[in-house]
Write a structure and sequence with these properties.
The complex is a heterodimer of chains A (162) and B (503). Chain A is 66% helix and 0% strand. Chain A has 162 residues and is mainly α. The longest helix of chain A has 24 residues, at 73-96. Helix content of chain B is 75%, strand content 1%. Chain B contains 22 helices and 2 strands. Chain B has a two-stranded antiparallel sheet with strand order 1-2. In chain B, helix 7 (144-160) packs across helix 8 (166-180) and helix 9 (206-225) packs across helix 19 (420-438). The longest helix of chain B is centred in the N-terminal third of the chain and has 34 residues, at 106-139. The mean pLDDT of chain B is 84. The chains are: A mainly alpha (162), B mainly alpha (503). At the A-B interface, helix 2, helix 3, helix 4, helix 5 and helix 6 of A face helix 8, helix 9, helix 18, helix 19 and helix 20 of B.
């Protein structure tokens, strides 16, 4: 990781600090609760964050020549893919229901984690087993109401949310 | 009835079939998560968190205690067999245990690790039982400025304990505190950082933060690492050569290590555990260094020393008992696992503090008993019965394992409020935690900052309100001054020991 890449997190934190400080400035006081108001502690946190980030940047500069474990773009791509799959799952979970969305998530993650080196039959069986096991655990053992997939009612039937 | 009577009476609940079942289940889960490199006891308890809505508080706490103890011990399995510490606290065990493994004495190394874990864990649980009333009594004397200084002490120790990463640990802790400010103000019904949405008025729930920080980010880290087929072959090969009888430590080896080493290591582990944020790896390291310093067989350290294994494993399991003290009495977690256990307490509507001993002995009793029995009975029993099997479990195929963890984590986030918003939040925290981990920021301090932040703000503002804005109240109040002095002393000691380690 280059020195510039190591500064990405500090830079993001400083942007966040600026945004947070602006929001802290918008906090209005309902009534007087003493010398430190509701907006003051967050402002102190911003100062603490900026100071700590400053020390981090100095530390990164001093250690800029230290060897670091390289991360290949391919590895980061896999992480990105996992993230996209998980985000799609969250978006579809309530819409298409637990059984279908969880089966699709399991299948997609299995293929991604195995980096494609898994047979279709194995992947389908694992995905079905994981979906079933998670349903038994949450829906049956712990009685959690999971969103149903309408056209799978009667085949694989989680309890309908009330 | 006396304190011990209350606790012992509560501990009998452990022998109810259902509670006992949860303890054994927790032990097996903890062993599995501790043994598989990359998975930890913290992750196991984080995944358990959603189930605590359905479990009763006693079963949930018993299960957590059992996972904690077994996860700490199980780290020694892969540390010994394939030189990959299952948990960070097993690094010292990897140095000695794997050397023994290469000499064909791996089973003996695992046996000594189990024996030391058993002794350390049991002593730690007994010390927890013995010292809790004293701590609870002391906690009653702490007033508002003192509570503020106690949290400052905890935060500073947590940050400084992250050797080599102090600035990054501080950043993560402050970030955690900032996240905690979302929602209603600690002193008046005023929403802050909600961006006009009603969803954020109740604040950020602990559940998505824990699941995101420990489960989702771990999934992303494992996705980045890819497959490790070579290690699987090595582990399976190692398991084939281990025999059950070989796990029993020989008497002359135990005598060589000496009772004093076990007791001293347990006391060190317990003491380190009481310190906020120190954790099992520091306990193991300090104890190992001390054992090496005092040993008559110092030359054997680094070359397969059973004394080295005993000191490290005894200390990291004794740490489990110590870590519960600040969490139960002050709401300050002693290590990442107890931070998540604190979440279990909060979810069950329990408030940490001295009143826990008087009002909730029926909950605390089984939990301490679970720590004790997990260490004393389940660790040796599990190793003897399932030792070779545990090692084979390590070679389990990773894609289905991580897929199952991802699914459980995401559904778990949904369980809290039956809302996909919590799932999305867990995902967001997972991404943040992954980015932080990638850049070397300890995410444990983010969680501890999130937990301790609201208390820090409340006691800070209340103290200044009571003193009419006079900041010297933190120095003139005796309890507060004690904690501030302790903060300075611990910073000095930790920085000095850190320099000594580097040298």
């Amino acid at each position: 990781m280059t020195f510039a890449a190591r500064l990405l997190v500090p830079a993001a934190l400083l942007v966040f600090a600026a945004f947070y400080l602006r929001e802290a400035g918008n906090i209005r006081v309902l009534f007087d609760t003493g010398p430190v108001g509701p907006a003051d502690f967050p402002k102190l946190l911003v100062i603490a964050l900026v100071v700590a980030v400053g020390f981090v940047v100095v530390g990164e500069w001093r250690g800029r020549r230290a060897p670091v474990e390289p991360i290949t773009p391919g590895d980061l791509g896999v992480v990105g893919l996992v993230l996209v799959i998980a985000a799609a799952y969250v978006a579809l979970f309530a819409r298409i229901g637990f059984p279908l969305s969880t089966f699709a998530l399991s299948l997609a993650l299995l293929v991604t984690f195995a980096r494609g080196a898994i047979g279709i039959a194995s992947a389908l069986l694992y995905a079905l087993a994981i979906t079933g096991a998670v349903y038994v655990l949450f829906g049956f053992v712990f009685d959690v109401r999971l969103p149903p997939t309408p056209f799978l009612d009667g085949v694989f039937t989680p309890q309908t949310p009330s | 009835m006396t304190y011990f009577g209350d606790i012992l009476s509560g501990a009998t609940a452990l022998f109810q079939p259902s509670v006992l079942g949860f303890m054994v289940l927790g032990f097996l889960i903890g062993t599995f998560f501790g043994a598989v490199p990359g998975l930890t006891a913290v992750l196991a308890i984080a995944l358990l968190l959603p189930f605590t809505y359905s479990l009763d508080a006693t079963s949930a706490l018993v299960m957590c205690a059992s996972i904690f103890m077994s996860g700490m011990y199980a780290g020694s399995i892969t540390a010994t067999t394939v030189n990959i510490p299952g948990a960070p606290s097993s690094v010292m065990t990897a140095i000695e245990g794997n050397t023994l493994m290469q000499r064909g004495e791996g089973a003996s190394a695992l046996g000594h690790a189990a024996l030391a874990s058993m002794i350390g864990g049991a002593i730690g649980a007994l010390l927890l039982l013995a010292f809790m009333p004293i701590t609870a009594h002391l906690a009653l004397f702490i007033k508002t400025p003192g509570k503020f200084s106690l949290i400052v002490f905890a935060l500073v120790v947590i940050v400084v304990a992250q050797r080599g990463n102090v600035a990054k640990a501080a950043v993560a802790a402050v970030l955690g505190m900032m996240i905690a400010t979302v929602g209603v103000d600690v002193m008046q019904p005023l929403p802050r950082f909600t961006f006009g949405t009603e969803t954020l008025v109740e604040g950020i729930d602990l559940m998505p933060l824990i699941i995101g920080t420990f489960a989702i980010s771990e999934i992303m880290v494992q996705a980045q690492k890819g497959r490790q087929a070579a290690a699987r072959v090595e582990i399976a090969d190692a398991a084939r050569h281990l025999k059950r009888s070989a796990f029993l430590p020989r008497w002359h080896e135990i005598r060589e290590i000496g009772l004093f080493t076990y007791i001293k290591s347990a006391l060190i582990g317990y003491g380190v555990g009481v310190l906020p944020g120190a954790g099992g790896s520091m306990a193991a390291f300090v104890s190992y260094a001390e054992a090496m310093r005092r040993s008559k067989r110092r030359d054997k350290f680094g070359k397969g020393s059973r004394e080295g294994i005993a000191s490290a494993e005894c200390a990291n399991n004794a740490m489990c008992g110590g870590a519960f003290v600040p969490m139960l009495m002050f709401g300050i977690p002693g290590d990442p696992t107890t931070a998540v256990v604190l979440g279990v307490l909060v979810i069950n509507g329990l408030q940490p503090g001295p009143q826990l001993l008087t009002n909730q002995a029926e909950l605390i009793g089984p939990m301490i008993a679970a720590l004790f029995f997990s260490a004393l009975v389940l660790i040796p029993l599990a190793l003897f019965l399932f030792g070779p099997l545990f090692i084979r479990i390590v070679s389990i195929s990773k894609p289905p394992l991580y897929t199952a963890i991802a699914v459980v984590a995401l559904i778990g986030a949904f369980v809290a409020t039956y809302s996909t918003f919590q799932m999305a939040l867990a995902l967001v925290f997972g991404v943040i935690a992954y980015a932080l981990r990638l850049a070397g920021y300890p995410t444990v301090t983010l969680l501890l900052g999130f937990i301790l932040g609201p208390g820090l703000e409340e006691y800070f503002r209340r103290s200044l309100s009571l003193s009419r804005g006079d900041p010297t109240v933190f120095l003139t109040s005796a309890d507060s001054a004690v904690f501030l002095v302790l903060t300075v002393v611990f910073v000095f000691v930790l920085v000095r020991s850190s320099k000594a380690v580097k040298a």
